[in-house]
């Protein structure tokens, strides 16, 4: 190891996180930047998983993607295609991408492009579809598929044109720094960041050659989509954490993700390897007519935000979320972030949280501290119905399982004992 | 008195505050809604004041207004006109209006129109000009006057057209309720409310017939003006508090304002009467090159926000502001709001503050409690340079002087002793 100690290696990892310069630079068809998607291929959330093992909402998303791509005209055809093994699956994380909930991403879907101008690397994520019937939660009806087409044909190209008029893209560190003082934690609450994004992009949208009709549809969609920034936050988290992964040493968590069956983490010293354990099921508040019994087990790449130190780790920044996710009041929010700090190396000086007496967000989850304390990262998450086609039924919190951290620590011991 | 006790009267006053339904319904030339402005008349901030008594920044604003109206072509001509008594002055508060800092408002300036759909009354305020050289802080150069013309000719009419496409205007209770969870206190911090306002109005702006050039200029101005919502908050505070004034009994403060010399308050049981005492000078943080010595004494109608229970009263909602105004960290913010609660009747159930453990904003400043405790309202405020033409030099906090509350209490004792 080129570092004198694990602490020194870990410091190098978190230095990469702090020095990252993520910019939203474009929105493009996924297959134009992810070459693996030029075929009958779907990306999915979490560590590797086979079709047969997928939980229902992820399967529902696959139906929707197959219909969107024109590989099937209905659920039945899609099911046949998928069951016959005619579709290849790749984890988003293996191709510089992340995907919310099911994370199902196909070649013609529009993806956000976040470039880390410090590391030079890029990361991709589909755009937020809004609430209600949406692909990421396993819905796949006509409304869902039509929206995906509109996002590909209108929203994506419009934002792409607007972003090209900016000076090198939108500086996401700045938006995070502002919005973390405005009650966002960037997983279950992005209302401030989404509003800032819309406010900043609008004058550029106006300067493009898009039609008035499209400008109206785009601005209306952005105005109505309070979680629009979530997917930007995911792509930026991926871009930043992948930059941190280049250090290739140390005990810092560089990715956390769930495929509905398994929770997987990556650790700075262990490269691309996944350490997995069975996922927990989120608990929280449910929409009218639904209850805990309807909840699908934990799913989605969005826990990359917690790996970066926001989301549930930054609960104190967003006390409003603690009520939304059923986790209590202001004191509860503070207790959660204080607890999360126990498993982290430091505070991120870029993102000062006024409600935490101006301390920075959590920085660098250390596998050693997780195992030592038994405290696992808390994740704020949407809750999908366990049946395909229903969609989101609530929001809550869920703990990462200790098992994957224990496995990672064992592997690290083995590596560094050599 | 038709109430059985002062407490019952006060309850009626705060019930009016809570039941108010302020909507932003239009932006129009001031003289079209304030008939007194059809002549050589200027509105000013604070209780009544004569030209000779005005502090320099208010005088600077008068020069700018005279030039804007075409009554004078330069400072010299304006000064002559004003010194000769050719301009009549009326307090904004006497004609359903409020004005920031100098509060100088002339007939052709565009004003926001806020309608309280509960009381049916309306209130007016000029629009926020942004930062730097601006009329409200006493600057009056060409840039300032040109901007006022653009606001009259482009920004105002554009927003008016957009607002006419909405369903009865923009519901300001909703924006306040959202933004108070996002770090705004609506006096020195309006970044969230301004972003929400812009996000919500943009799709309507797009639907108007304004040119692409104007749409760009308007969206760019709104995107760049983080305090745009302040003036909306002022007009809504005025509309709400004027509705509360219809009760005409009790000991609740219904207006607080400053003209640079005197701090004036109105009290629910004493109708239109002003109770005044010499203003204090705000203390806080200064822009580079300026210091406390440059500060003009306290000025502006914006303390109507504190009368409503936000601004400095809601410091805990905006811990970021405590640093901006030099008042400390998170604990300081909490201490201030806890102290302010001691002089208020209740919490406003409409506007829950997550950082105050979800308690509502302060509601109903009781003159009796102010005098009894000696605690006077804390006001968050911009600081004008004491010389005309310079503009804003900082931001800070200032206390309302106890004297006006003591005078009001004496008058109330006299009234209710009969």
Automatic annotation (TrEMBL), chains A, B:
Pfam families attached to this UniProt entry: AllG
What the entry lists under Gene3D superfamilies is as follows: conserved protein of unknown function from Enterococcus faecalis V583, Enterococcus faecalis V583 domain, v583 domain like
Q: What is this protein called?
A: DUF1116 domain-containing protein
The organism of origin for this protein: Proteiniborus ethanoligenes
Lineage here is: Bacteria, Bacillati, Bacillota, Clostridia, Eubacteriales
